[in-house]
Predict the structure.
Amino acid sequence: MCDFKKRIAIVTGASSGIGEAIATSLVEAGTQVVINARRAKRLAALEDRLNGKAGKIISVAGDASDERVVEKLLDTAREGFGRDPDLIVANAGRGLKGSVLTSDKSKWLEMYRIN
């Protein structure tokens, strides 16, 4: 079994659902975690809820398809935990409203980049 107390993780899409559950499990296992999602308020609430658990958590709001946000996630892990992360959970995802025929075509590339 892996000793998660020695790990540094980044979890994207952490503001709800599977990403939130993974981030919660990792922190409770003692992992140092940088969480990410576009919804800053939800990230802050998760960070508040999980601080004081076995691991440490830092949030970085932003779109995980943006290269600058990815760099900020890596920099935050290095600055906050002293080294590069060794576990990445690329969970961010996006869907489209409507059907294939009725959805906004300009949103397809955006969805493809994040997913």
Q: What stands out?
A: The CA atoms of residues 100 and 108 lie 10 Å apart. Residues 67-81 form the longest helix (15 residues).
